Structure formats: C-alpha cells, structure tokens
TrEMBL record:
This is Flavin reductase. Belongs to the flavoredoxin family. Signal peptide: none annotated. Residues 12-161 form the Flavin reductase like domain. GO terms for molecular function: FMN binding; oxidoreductase activity, acting on the CH-NH group of donors, NAD or NADP as acceptor. Pfam families: Flavin_Reduct (PF01613). InterPro entries: Flavin_Rdtase-like_dom, Flavoredoxin, Split_barrel_FMN-bd. Its cofactor is FMN. Coiled coil: none annotated. Keywords: Flavoprotein.
Length: 180
C-alpha cells in the first residue's frame, strides 16, 4: 500500500446519498446540495453537514424546517449546478427547472423531479461540528420513476451512482432471535 495524504482520507468513507435540502425563509423557496448526510439509528432522524457559509443555513435556524429531496443519477448536472451557486442571488428552482410542490407539514417545498422527499423539522444544531439534526415528519416516494439510482459524493468532485442491489434479507433474518 502507498501513503494517502491524511487530508484525503475522508474520500475513503462515503456518507449517505447526496440530497437537496429545500427551505423557505418566509419569502421564497431555496434549495442547496448537501453531500454529507446520515441516518441516526432506526428512527426517522437524519443529520446533514452545513453551516453559516450556506445561504440556506439561516432559514434552517430560523424556521426549524426543511425537506430532504433525494435526486437521482439523471439529475447529476443539476445537483452540481445547485451546489456551486448561491440562493442569495439565484432563484435555483427557476434556473435549474425544478418543480416545487407544497408538502403537508412544513413550508419548505418538495421537489417533483426527485425520487423521494422527506419533510423534516430541525431538532438540534451541533455548531461545533456543523451538523444539523433533523426529524422526519412525512415521507413521499415516486414509485413510478424510471431512474432510481441515487448519487454518492466521493469528496473530490467525483460521484458514484448506486449499482447492483444485493439481497441478503433472508440470510440476515435467519440470524434474528425468536420474536423479533
């Protein structure tokens, strides 16, 4: 093995899929690309990494609400485009041709073009690590969508798309104790 610069070690461990985080600050909708996401335990709790450098961060702090919209491989160029411009001077929904749909529980919009959307409320902000903890309130899935492969950021400007689904449910179920 050869040495990898330590500041590149994060590219070896990939978090959850790239998501769009939508907000509404009371005046207008916004969307940002977030490449660091994770699920917290087996509940509908999630975490994203973001901070004051992102225009949407203030809306997350103020409104305590957002939507996690899950784009697919066919949206990759829009994912990158949204990630490299700011909502402070760009209407990203108009610029990138996204359709905002009203959810049931938060003011932030769902995105019609996405595979799935999760309405969330902010339950904690861990400022020391720039982590926003979210609780899912409602989830929506477009089960008729042809493209279902999600995106994963490697961290160096490249992405991986979901590949082959490997089913080991039966094997894992065999290891569960009685009654579970």
């Amino acid at each position: 093995m050869k040495t990898l610069p330590l500041n590149q070690a994060f590219t070896l461990i990939e978090p959850g899929p790239v998501v769009w985080v939508t907000t509404n600050d009371g005046r207008r909708d916004n969307v940002m690309t977030v490449s660091w996401t994770m699920v917290l335990d087996f509940s509908p709790k999630f975490a994203i990494a973001t901070g004051p450098w992102n225009h949407s961060y203030q809306a997350l702090r103020d409104t305590k609400a957002c939507v996690l919209a899950i784009p697919t491989l066919d949206l990759l160029d829009r994912v990158v485009g949204i990630g490299i411009c700011s909502g402070s001077d760009t209407d990203k929904f108009a610029k990138f041709g996204l359709t905002a749909l009203r959810g049931q529980l938060v003011a932030a919009p769902l995105i019609q073009e996405c595979l799935a959307n999760i309405e969330c409320r902010v339950i904690d902000i861990v400022e020391r690590h720039n982590i926003v903890v979210l609780e899912g309130l409602a989830a929506y899935l477009d089960d008729e969508r042809a493209e279902r492969r999600t995106l994963h950021a490697v961290g160096d400007g490249s992405f991986v798309a979901d590949g082959i689904k490997l089913d080991r449910r039966e094997m894992m179920a065999a290891k569960l104790p009685e009654g579970i």
